[in-house]
Amino acid sequence: MTDTLAFLKALAKNNNRDWFLKNKPKYLQAKETFENLLEAIHHELLAFDESLAGLNPRKQAFRIYRDVRFSKDKRPYKTNMGAGFSAHGKMEQEPGYYVHVEPGNKSFVAGGFYMPNPEHLAKIRQEIDYNAERFLKILNNATFKKYFRGLDDFDRLKTAPKGFAKDHPHIELLKNKSFVVTHTFTDAEVAGRSYARKVAAACRAMKPLNDFLTEAIS
User: What is the layout of strands, in order, in the sheet containing 179-185?
Assistant: First the structure.
């Protein structure tokens, strides 16, 4: 992954169309390396998550081109490479695993359910309300805690969601609008030979959370 990291680092300093076109061969090589990584990760994921069997791992990457139509930031390219693995594709309204490669020790793997729609969010909150003991057991599992400090708190209500009392014993969990966990990696880890296995190990640890969320919306 050294070439991918190097390309993305250079792109961050030269985020414009002219530079990108001049360096298109380097981009294509970086993209190829990233897709090779996705194949290796997918192979590892299949050892414990058979729901991903129908995926083409090389097709799970997200485009490097930014949608700038409604953004004040007009830089045309992302300075990372990312990919999503879930039962039906790229985590479109379902739990899954997200792989993010970005230089500067900003790489990470994440999982869970990002921004569920209102119907799915209501079902997840209901499932937590009904089965809080099971949900807390997942979050407090030793292997889970080895990789994750708990649910990321970037997307939460400031007060109790509709239908739940402010003094609900699990109100802090119910305030979440996304149910996501994240584990970070250094550039050295990304460039290492065992990176795919390290990503998969973190994904294995988060799978019980994904299973809970999948059951909730089923």
Answer: 81-85, 96-101, 107-113, 179-185
